[in-house]
């Protein structure tokens, strides 16, 4: 029975989309990592609680198939702020978040980082 569960989770991992804009924060990548940890021995893995495993699979399968999106359709494609889903994706991309973090730094901190890196580079050359 563990082999069947393992194959179902592998199929789910294959179907789950990977969002390249969220490096290190992608749900699909996290899911693959957790499946690899849970099934270290592949089909021979002994599952301590099969009922919980089945419930997790069913929940993840519903999310992946957009079950709730179909069950509870939205009237508009925007949130209460008026921001569309595509604009949210752009803002939440890793590159955008890095740019925002960089913008939060003050001038003094930017100068300190710039000169401290130069000092380290020159010291390593000697």
Automatic annotation (TrEMBL):
GO terms for biological process: mitochondrial respiratory chain complex III assembly. One of its GO terms (cellular component) is mitochondrial nucleoid. Pfam families: UQCC2_CBP6. InterPro entries: UQCC2. Keywords: Mitochondrion, Mitochondrion nucleoid, Transit peptide. It is found in: Mitochondrion matrix, Mitochondrion nucleoid. The keyword Mitochondrion applies. This is Mitochondrial nucleoid factor 1.
